Structures are given as structure tokens and as C-alpha cells.
Amino acid sequence: MADNSYIIIEVPDMNDSFSRVVLQGKLYFIRFTYNDTFGYWSFGVYNSLYDPIREGIKIVPRMVLNLFCGTMDMPNGVFGVLTELDKVGRYDFFEGKAKFIFSPV
Q1: Which of 31, 34, 51, 96 could, after both became Cys, cross-link 44 (CB 3.0–4.6 A)?
Q2: Own/partner pairs for 25-29, CB < 8 Å, 24+ apart?
Q3: pTM score, two decimals?
Q4: What is the DSSP string of 33-86?
Q5: Per-residue pLDDT averaged across 65-91, rounded?
Q6: How many domains does the chain have?
Q7: CA dist., res. 76 & res. 102, Å (int)
């Protein structure tokens, strides 16, 4: 059964990458970064010219990740991670144990 209440954004199998996504008809780039030293993922949202809107947001499972990112340039919705894990490891997105999502308002 498909759930149309959110969009899955694929996280590449890389420690640092940009993904091109269209959210609500507008082009954004999402930068995913894995911090190998401390063992966590973070992400940032960039406009179509790669200018940062918000950077360095730590990815925590089952939380609204952009709750405190009040800016007019952010997409109108919430980013989050769907998983049963308590912590998202380096390969958990690639192995399908976690999904990075955007849910429009």
C-alpha cells in the first residue's frame, strides 16, 4: 500500500553528497553528510544555485528535523526519518533500514 503523505528522498551511499529534489514545484538540493568521527548523519537544504538555506541539521530518528529552522526559504513541510532504529548508522539508508522523508504541509 502506497502512502502519499510523504516523499522519500534517497540518501546516496556516500559520506558527503548533494541530491537534486523538487519539493512543491521548487528545485532544492539536499546535502547529506556522514560524520564518521561521531557516527551521525546531518543534512542541509540549498536553493537551486547551491546557496545554503539551512546547514548542519543532525538526523535523529522519529523527530521533526526542521522544527526549529524557521526560514521563509525552506520548503513548507517537515523533514524526518522513518526507522525502527534508535540511531541511523552509515549504511542504514543504503540497506533500507531507514528512509529520509519530506512531508508537505
Answers
A1: 31
A2: 26/75, 28/53, 28/75
A3: 0.90
A4: EEETTTTEEEEEEE-TT--EEEEEEE--TTS-TTTT---TTS-SEEEEEEES-S
A5: 87
A6: 1
A7: 10
